[in-house]
Amino acid sequence: MNNHEPINNSYLISSKIVRAIRAVIGEKKNTLHEPTFKGKEWEYVKDCLDSGFVSSVGQYVEKFENKITEYTGAKYAIAVVNGTAALHLGLIVAGVKFDDEVLVPSLTFVATANAVSYIGAKPHFVDINAKDFGIDAKKLTAYLKEISEIKNGVCVNKKTGRVIRAIVPMHVFGHPCNLKELLPLCNEFKIKVVEDAAEALGSFYDKKHMGTFGNLGVISFNGNKTITTGGGGVILTDDVELATHAKHLSTTAKSNHPFAYIHTEIGFNYRMPNLNAALGCAQLEQLPELLNSKRRLYRAYSKAFSEISEVSLFQEPPLCQSNYWLQTLLLNEEFMSCRKEIIENCIEDGISTRPVWKPLHKLSMYENSPASSLPITNNLSERIINIPSSAGLV
Ligand SMILES: *Cc1c(COP(=O)(O)O)cnc(C)c1O
Known about the structure:
Layout: H1 5-25, H2 41-51, H3 59-72, E1 76-80, H4 83-93, E2 101-105, H5 111-118, E3 122-126, H6 137-147, E4 148-151, E5 154-157, E6 164-167, H7 179-188, E7 192-196, E8 204-205, E9 208-209, E10 216-220, E11 233-237, H8 240-250, H9 274-285, H10 287-305, E12 311-313, E13 320-321, E14 327-331, H11 339-348, E15 354-355, H12 375-380, E16 384-387
Parallel strand pairs: 2-3, 2-6, 6-7, 7-10
Antiparallel strand pairs: 1-11, 4-5, 8-9, 8-13, 10-11, 12-14, 14-16, 15-16
Helix pairs in contact: 1-10, 1-11, 2-9, 3-9, 4-5, 4-8
């Protein structure tokens, strides 16, 4: 009898989840997250085609960057081909070099660690907290005191001898992590901060936009994010030197000469094309409306799930304004073994659900990476379920 219990529980819990979600979205077809094109997308994209400027030259790229700085409050924005490329460049200009270590959460999309690896640096996984799913600053302080020392003005891992050059805090599903606690710590340990705000366009901590707290920050405009440019990303910074270097590297490090091809270092072909920026300009015009719609969806889910005791719906942390990119259920600990079946049952009933990413320290290419103990990461990664989150569902 005992070994039937999880099956019964899974069935029971998934029925409740399906009922709650149907109460909010009705019989609508749903995906986890899909884009909304209700503005001037066609007009701006057509304008690119009519003008012939579809690639890396054209007025929309600069327009898009200006709109992004205006909205986020960052001094500089550099538009690139995707969020991963933005992270790659951000880490390079922050000074990350071959064989450095970079602190990253393990509960993140794989791009966070891959960008570190592209440089030949090593991701070093650290634990998160259950309040906002972000890096746990208190735990990190104790950990760094134990494993590192400051030598010649840089933080050195005493075990590996490598320099811990940077940290990449990530704002999970758009929920801001507590940078007010993390930043002084990074300052103390001489660690550069590159925020992975890929999911956090429209999210604020104490009224300041995510991605503008660290030395640099990045946002993604992939098709599944809050707004999209098809593929795209942007680097944010207040530092003119970092901004200039990032832009230079994104355009093959070509010197500014009217016709000669002179490149000053090994650069990248990472500049965002005009066509994508045109789409982005149209999307940005709708951002406030999309954010309202996503918040309405959160409120409706919050009501629908209030009586279901087996799961809790994630709410923005105090002082934070979340974009509610992906709506998130946290399964009670006692039912974590049911998650796979719950998700299967929901999908069978036409409700798009998905587990959070497999933690990166459990992926084959990262299983031998340096890491702190990761109890909260391991626990949460077995309990998180994302549910249909697109704007326009309510
Ligand atoms: C989407 C995402 C990225 C990468 O962005 P792309 O534009 O898809 O390359 C990086 N980090 C996180 C946390 C993301 O969610």
